[in-house]
Amino acid sequence: MIDHSVSAAANMPVLVPEPSTVPVPAALPNKGLITQFLEWFGDLGIFFWNVLRAAVTPPFEFRELFRQLDEIGSMSLPLVALAGAATGIVLSMEARFSLTRFGAKSLLPAAIVFSIIHETGPIITGLVVSGRVGAGIGAELASMKVTEQIDAIEASAVNPYRLLAATRILACILMLPLLTLAADFSGLIMGWVTQALSEPLSFHQFINSGFKGSDFSDFLPPTFKTMVFGLIIGLIACFQGMRTQGGAAGVGRAATSSVVLSSLFVILADVVLVKLIIILFP
Amino acid sequence: MSTINQIPIQTAAKRPGAEGNGSAAAIAVENVHKSFGSQKVLNGINLDVKRGETLAVLGRSGTGKSVLLRLIIGLETPDSGSILIHGQDIAGLAIDRMGEIRKKMGFLFQHAALYDSLTVEENVAFPLLHHKKEMSKSDRAVRVKELLAEVGMEAARAKMPSDISGGMQKRVGLARAMALEPDILLLDEPTAGLDPISSGEIDDLVLKLQQEHQVAFIVVTHDLHSAKAIASRLALLDKGNVVIQGSFEDLQKSEIEFVREFLKHS
Ligand SMILES: Nc1ncnc2c1ncn2[C@@H]1O[C@H](COP(=O)(O)OP(=O)(O)O)[C@@H](O)[C@H]1O
Ligand SMILES: [Mg+2]
Fold first, then answer.
1. For residue B215, which phi and psi values (nearest 5 degrees)?
2. Whose CA is nearest to atom 3 of ligand 1?
3. pLDDT tens digits, residue range A183-223?
4. What superfamily in CATH does domain B2-97+231-265 come from?
5. Could you tell me if B166 lies within 8 Å of chain A, comparing CB atoms?
6. Contact (CB<8Å) A161/B95
């Protein structure tokens, strides 16, 4: 019985205890926030398990995976590059101001490179993608759910966890590090441009002194940690989308809650990941 | 799992509430109860349908006809009772196991539920693309064209679902449901929203499939005229129960208040 109730798409009671629990933070009068959160988290766990099981057994949906990679990459790339560039400029200006005050101007390139690659690039990418892709996937799957298209997929003997969720989540996991590199790159370029405007400095010099004292492997963990962000964004957006109820209003709620919850969990995960990276890669 | 193929078309005057006698029934619904929250929708339903037989399910809207079809294809789980497809109980089957059974079932949703990001043609090709991987692209195109021709929708094949009317969507949905040549077809109001001519064509198609491929049909309909034309048996639902089951004549002869009321207004 358990197997079945979790298998029959997201309209099953197990996944959707009550229509009104769809936007999680909205409090129900008769249920505590904690209970509601635990229920939501339990359902999320069951959902993840279903997706995982579907993802590792054939048939593999390569066509849909490539479509999603393309879609997620192309819809986020311009935004991520722009956000990265803007943070590069801001960081560069702020760092110049504070480091000059402390008489540590020679550390400027290193400070900029380090903070972009270690923290701002990944987190900005995570948040921008949460907004863009989280809302996109949340709304798309929610509208498919309320118009019975997900049921139609299941009725056609195709597993929607495999076709819809696994492909989107995997695409998010794979795209996030690449998008992070794009954010890092445009951040570094604009960071350098901002410095070069104040005093002459070639890009070569900037990069050379920026990366002095650190080697390539220092930058791998912060970039690859964004795969966890990708997992969070894809998983939450698919989950919120596929459990939607209540027509067009439900679609709006699903999109909103996907964005809110995935950004929130990306930031929370970052706290844990930064600590983990410090412990594991001293 | 054994299916008996050569059953003659069921005589219309079958005894109502036939008890499922195992392997002969393609679909057997046994004492199924289903509630949503505190709302009782189905209250101990018993039905069975053999191959080559068409059961028309009638009833007022909101009596749970769509829920019944969704239960049969496993999109909902019964609270109690069981559903057997070719003799196999579908309770508790994992989604991929259920998928194996669903490959031989076709489902037409009440609101068609076409994939709105795909064209009409791609909608019909969807089951073929996923389950007939060995089929070449050109063979698939031929098959899709054939299916669309059956429902009279070849002209709209490159259109998006949002650009065709509800009745046309239903016909495309029917073509999609037939794509894998299922031996069970569950149709939720196939002729609702259709003009009388198209509606007659759908009836002819149902009769043809029933005779040529021994398909087991459950057709939910409000159209008594079409029910009479296609069904070997009619079942009238009310308040979560089968009020009467039998031929059209059985319904006409019935003394039950609700049946007479229903026929009077149809
Ligand atoms: N997923 C659901 N959640 C709650 N109630 C539902 C659900 N599906 C159907 N119902 C209720 O079940 C009843 C029967 O619905 P339905 O089977 O669609 O009726 P119809 O006979 O018109 O097809 C309706 O009152 C409907 O509100
Ligand atoms: Mg209905």
1. -75, 145
2. B36
3. 999 999 999 999 888 888 888 888 888 888 777 777 888 89
4. P-loop containing nucleotide triphosphate hydrolases (3.40.50.300)
5. no
6. yes
